[in-house]
Write a structure and sequence with these properties.
The chain has 194 residues and is mainly α. The chain has ten helices and no strands. It is flat, with a radius of gyration of 21 Å.
Length: 194
């Protein structure tokens, strides 16, 4: 992850401070202390600029912040004394060998049932131990398989490959692919096909 773990809490604090400042500005304009229109314009501009700068400097900031909040939420673990190593191995087997990611409407509950956990336990395992949300976990396998197919089957359309690996739409495929590879599937194929 491009945001160092030690920086995430500080970034979350700054982001929270920005939201609190926006709330204070709203209160001051609502109560008539500050003239409304210029204050709103300044506040919105500051907010947009800050979010833009954070997203440029730390592309995975929001994901990293979400993971940090998930870690804090799971301080009291629902996994208890569950041996996680066999579960993690079973998850990898389900995704790599059995290719469960290719099920278009795969749900957290379905995957949790396959590894004999409750949905909340699997969510905790993915978020706090593997640093991924459920959708990021599944999409990582989908995109990895799509990368392989794009290069091994150059005659097939990008859309057909996206559907085969489990994406429900072309836009969902492109968005996930760009998240992991920073380029579109077609550009990836063009850059890497030999």
């Amino acid at each position: 992850m491009s945001v160092a773990k030690s920086r995430v809490p500080r970034l979350v604090q700054w982001f929270t401070l920005l939201v609190a400042a926006a709330a204070l500005l709203w209160f001051l304009t609502w109560s008539g202390i500050v003239e409304t229109r210029p204050a709103i314009h300044a506040g919105v501009t500051l907010y947009i600029l800050t979010v833009y700068l954070y997203s440029q400097r730390y592309p995975n900031f929001l994901l990293a912040a979400r993971m940090e909040l998930a870690r804090q939420r799971y301080q009291k673990s629902g996994l208890g004394d569950v041996d996680l190593n066999p579960i993690v191995e079973r998850l990898r087997e389900l995704m790599e060998s059995e290719k469960l990611y290719a099920i278009e409407d795969l749900t957290l509950a379905q995957l949790a049932g396959e590894v004999e956990l409750r949905s909340q336990q699997l969510s905790e395992l993915l978020n706090s131990r593997m640093n991924r949300s459920f959708s990021a976990f599944v999409n990582e396998y989908r995109v990895r398989e799509a990368c392989r197919l794009l290069l091994e089957e150059p005659h097939r359309s990008v859309l057909a490959i996206g559907m085969e690996v489990g994406f429900s739409s072309n836009s969902a495929f492109y968005k996930a692919f760009r998240t992991f590879n920073r380029v579109s599937p077609a550009r990836y194929r063009k850059q890497n096909y030999t």
